Amino acid sequence: MAEQEESRATAYTTLALGDDFRHELEIKRSRFITVLRHASDEDAARALVTELRKEFHDARHHCSAFILGPDRVIQRSNDDGEPSGTAGIPMLEALIKRETRPGVTDLSDVSAVVVRYFGGILLGAGGLVRAYSESISAALDSAPLVQRRRLRICDIPVPHYAAGRLENDLRSAGYVMAETSYEPSGTILRVALPDDAIAIADAAERLASMTAGASLLQLRGTEWVDVQA
Asked: 59 or 226, which is more confident?
């Protein structure tokens, strides 16, 4: 019950885990360097700003925006010295309104910073809004995104000698595999399933067919799992 109270969402799109993603635009001699990072909480999101202030210490502005949580309830932005409403808010709106699939706006757990080196030509309020919005949109066009889904994790205990073949069979059948554990008594494969009775029953039936009834699903809790590049 507590898990349902924390979040009603069952899926959303986020930036793939790994190194920061960077993209640069030049607009009327100003450089706009966009840095995107996966962030699971506000501390992680704000850490990106702190790090980039040190790396680009001679830049005039380090504007930021982030959106967090499966339900996207945490949304923050900062103009960092640009005229009010011309940088942070356009950046945040670009994150919020990003279509990850046709008609779907579900991007979250992303921290974005746009570092600006002033090129000597004033852009005006409208020009700044367009520049910061375009910086985020252009970065997202080629950033590595994944779909994250809340799935039911199920253990499948198997003998060591049978684990490799069964895992290959499960992957070939389209199942999402979670982390495998190796115990003295055998291997525990983990499969991530939609959290509904029909999907679990179907998986149990297919597993029984694959192993001639030798292996059974053991239900565990739910986890957020990256399922799609």
From this structure: 59
From the CB of residue 93, how many other CB atoms can be counted at a distance below 10 Å? 17
Q: Where are the beta strands (DSSP E) in 95-144?
A: 110-117
pLDDT tier, 2 (very low <50, low <70, confident <90, very high otherwise):
very low
CATH superfamily of 2-143: Impact, N-terminal domain (3.30.230.30)
Quote the pLDDT of residue 8.
Answer: 80
For residue 73, what are the contacts with CB-CB under 8 A and spacing of at least 6?
none
DSSP 16: P
Alpha-carbon Rg for the chain, nearest whole angstrom, is: 22
Q: How far is CA 80 from the centre of its chain?
A: 25
Give the pLDDT confidence of 31-48 residue by residue, as tens digits: 999 999 999 999 999 999
Give the three-state DSSP class for 179.
coil
Q: List where CATH 3.30.230.30 sits in the chain.
A: 2-143
**In Å, what is the CA distance from 91 to each residue of 113, 131, 158?**
9, 9, 49
| CA-CA-CA-CA dihedral for 107, 27, 18, 165, to nearest 10 | 70
CATH number given to 148-228: 3.30.70.240
91, burial (CB in 10 Å: exposed 0-12, middle 13-18, buried 19+): buried
